Amino acid sequence: MSIPTNREELKAKLAELGISLIAEENHEAVDTCEKQIEVVKQKDAVAKNLLFQDKKKSVWMCVVKHDRQIDTKKLKTKIGAKQSLRFSGDSMGLLKCAKGCLTPLAIQNDADKKIHVLLDVYFKDESPIGVHPCGEAGNTATWTLKAADLKKYITSFGTTVTEIDFENLDVPKNDKDKGGNKKKKGGKGKKPQKGKTTEKKKVNKEGIDVKKADNPFLWYSQCIYRSGMLEKYDVSGCYVLRPWAFNIWEGITQFFDARIKLLGVKNCYFPLFVPERNLTKEKDHVEGFAPEVAWVTKSGKSDLKEPIAIRPTSETVMYPYYSQWIRSHRDLPLKLNQWCNVVRWEFSYPTPFIRTREFLWQEGHTAFATRLEAEEEVLTILGLYKSVYEDLLAIPVIKGKKTEKEKFAGGLYTTTVEAFIPTSGRGIQGATSHCLGQNFAKMFNISFENTEKKKSFAWQNSWGLTTRTIGVMVLVHGDDKGLVLPPKVAPIQLVIVPILYTKTKEQVLKKGEELRKAFVDAGIRCEFDDTDNHNPGWKFNTYELKGVPLRLEVGPKDLDKGTATLVRRDDGKKVVAKFEDLPKVAKALFVQIHDDMLNRAREVRDKRLRKVTTWKDFVQALKDKCMIMAPWCGEMAAEELIKKKSGEMGPETFDLGEDGTDEVCTMSGAAKSLCIPFKQDPMPSGTKCISCDLGYPDREAKMWCLFGKSY
Q1: Which residues, including other chains, have CB under 8 Å from residue 274's CB and lie 6 or more apart?
Q2: At the topology level of CATH, where does 494-605 sit?
Q3: What is the pTM of this model?
Q4: Alpha-carbon distance 591 to 587, whole Å?
Q5: Which of 93, 226, 407, 675 is deepest in the core (most CB within 10 A)?
Q6: Following DSSP, what letter does each residue of 582-620 receive, concatenated?
Q7: Could you write out the DSSP letters of every residue in 90-141?
Q8: pLDDT band at 182 (very low <50, low <70, confident <90, very high)
Q9: CB contact at 8 A, 88 and 114
Q10: In whole numbers, what is the pLDDT of the chain averaged over residues?
Q11: What are the pLDDT digits (tens) for 281-336?
């Protein structure tokens, strides 16, 4: 039997089997199915292909709907695997597929017949299914064929295909064995080994049971759920913000809102819905957001005359009214801000706080008579965003300008603050301040009569900060015990835990309440946990999980000495102080804790910020989980080549789950431009752009650009 090794041979094999392609699309290299969806026409046909194996090296290839999440524990039970399933990173060894190119059309390379193919029942026989062809650089094309024809191709090489309902992996409980025979009751079973129990091991839901360094994504999931920040919601990508998280968001909003009001910005609110005609008015803008827009098309059972978008951002909601309100130079500047929610229907794997389909934010929209005024405000707002991160959340950020490729769709230019997550080695956009120029003003006729009695178009800005701030804070500061909250945003800054004994209980409780009042009077957010259903050790662990900055322990010995012990959450250090000095000491410790958290985070970030001038060093820095400062010529084609070549290292796949549920997420391994930092070191004469090592025409570097993997 002939074994296809390239696209031409594969087409010949398909023809030999009487299989015709529905569609054949060539495109840029895509290393995830999320990116594949963006470049193909039949988006719902795109299949996600995953390889799993157990400890005995049995291998399964799952061919599933692109947005399907797989619970590997339920899948293990469904297929009768005897060992836990884990991702297999050996797609090259098993199927001769480079990372990012995995495809069931390479099944012929499984000479030893190790692989079992599991096909999602979502793909009915006549349904189209889009997969990469086999051969070199397979991920630069998508071939669409009928699901029945894909099964025909796979089975022609002696490989079995099992159809699985991945949407419902629960195995129904009954009294029959796998063969359908009735199980015998009362028969002899295997005796448990001595000293062992047959009870199923329970998942600890009251603490973190995975180390941050070992599995940062699972650790993150446990932190935000078990600390009481979030609950999952029935709509994927949407979450319930519990009071512990929302209180932190309120602290951020109050900090920022007070400062923009000093600049003359006024709060307002515009509707959630966007008429289609408004959204499509600015071509670049709508193209930038098109894949993420959610639409309302029905009212009850009736179709709407015009589809209504749910705002992904509010430029096209607000600017028709700006054109009505702005007539004269005396109407400028106009500075409005709204605190609201937006919806962006991301195809990529949702990550709580970081990438969600609905999130909270503020969006400022301002209009000025001159470019100079607009550009001054862009940098002023960016400075406030830096202050949110560094002065409030103790997170160091890098200020810079986005490249043309990465700027806000439809804007003149975008400025940004970029943070760094050490455990994943990824940069993350903290907040952006855009100069929109006059583009939107011309589209929506936001014009005015200037001082010379002539018509002019307004210069506009927009700027936004989201609940992503909370996720960045958790990822940067959290440790193996849970959250570590900066004192300025902690819902509870100090918790008092009494050490109670029967004889001295009343005295200790009385002193605890006195101390609570003293802290509150001093402006400290304090809670006295006098509950008696848990012991002090349990309370210590709980408040460490929740990240409370300071813990005060009060017991009978403390009453005798007239002192109490303050314990820092960030480093575990203890400070003993007299009762009357405790509020003053606590306030001083809050300042010290913030500064120490910021300095530690900056030190870690700076050690992982690597300057390189060769591609070899660039790749090694990526492998070492670093952000990279590299010389760049400023050309978009060079930037795209850097991203493409770095992406050939393949995507990264992670276990992600909570409370015993195994889910998986795949993130791009490509390095993109994060920003062009405002602070630029001198460029040595003759330095070439980093892309020149990749065969790009020789170009002299014009600037240092910050590159890295991102969220």
Answers
A1: 308, 309, 310, 311, 316, 317
A2: Rossmann fold (3.40.50)
A3: 0.76
A4: 7
A5: 675
A6: HHHHHHHHHHHHHHHHHHHHHHHHHHTEEE-SSHHHHHH
A7: -HHHHHS--TT---GGGGGG-TT--EEEEEETTS-TTSEEEE--SSTTGGGE
A8: very low
A9: no
A10: 89
A11: 766 666 666 778 899 999 999 999 999 999 999 998 999 999 999 999 999 999 99
Q: Shortest CA distance to 597 belongs to which of 387, 393, 428, 358?
A: 393
367 contacts 324 by C-beta, under 8 angstroms: no
Asked whether this chain's domains 216-477 and 609-708 adopt the same fold, the reply is no
The CATH class of 609-708 is alpha beta
Angle between helices 243-261 and 468-477 (to 10 degrees): 110
Q: Which CATH superfamily is domain 216-477 in?
A: Bira Bifunctional Protein; Domain 2 (3.30.930.10)
What's phi and psi for 448, nearest 5 deg? -150, 160
**For the chain, domain boundaries:** 7-164, 216-477, 494-605, 609-708
**Cβ-based neighbour number of residue 657 at 10 Å:** 19
- Report the share of the chain in percent with pLDDT over 70: 91
Q: Which residues of 497-512 are buried (b: 16+ CB within 10 A; e: fewer)?
A: bbbbeeebeeebbebb
Residues 672, 622 contacting (CB under 8 angstroms): no
Backbone φ and ψ for 600, nearest 5 degrees, come out as -65, -45
CB atoms within 10 A of CB 387: 16
Six token digits for residue 532? 């008696």
Handedness of CA 147, 150, 155, 159 (dihedral sign): negative
Whole-angstrom distance, CA of residue 161 vs CA of residue 115: 10
Question: Would you call 415 helix, strand, or coil by DSSP?
Answer: strand
Superfamily of domain 7-164: YbaK/aminoacyl-tRNA synthetase-associated domain (3.90.960.10)
